[in-house]
Design brief:
single chain; alpha+beta; 3 helices; DNA-binding
Amino acid sequence: MEKRLPKEFFLQDTIEVAVQLLGKELVHVHPDGRRLSGIITETEAYLGADDPACHSFGYRRTDRTRILYQPGGLAYIYFIYGMHHCLNVVTRPAEEPEAVLIRGLHPLRGLDPGIKTDGPGKLCRALGLSRDQNGLDLRGDQLYLSENTTFSDEEIESSPRVGIDYAEDAIEWPLRFRVRTSLATKNQSLKSAKR
DNA sequence: CACATGATCGCCT
DNA sequence: GGCGATCATGTGG
């Protein structure tokens, strides 16, 4: 039985959520009926009004960032570089516009073998996510997160975020988190935890 | 309305 | 390591 993440999970400190999301299963029930999912292996925290790399820096409010001001637990999906979508998990209570970018998955259900999910754009393509899913509740029927695998601190490494060279002071902030352990060695537990 | 740019990727050298 | 693709979004006039 799938155990969805409780609403309170998403209201926590954003860095905590970014770390805790590693090992969770991200599931998209595609409009065509396929159930597609993967285990989250890489994330980045975006710390809202005080983070120059965040879309809501300085409490910027536009049509695009509107969803970031909602209570945690929603999907923030935007289109970038003319060809890619990126999925974020909105965190914190309403009016604290923070989020976690999902950067990497370990394919689990419904995905063609060999499909690449090692990048924010690639994983959105693999799961069939686009702006059509922007604003969806991450505890809903179409898109949700559930418990799966737990990684220890030793298995997680942090580093500076990618693609934010314009973000001045924040360039070096170690807000990127990824699973250090080769997932091959964890495969057994992934398999047994599945289904 | 016009323009500049980006939370990326894949291909090139 | 560099660069082009390709267009939604934000900003300014």
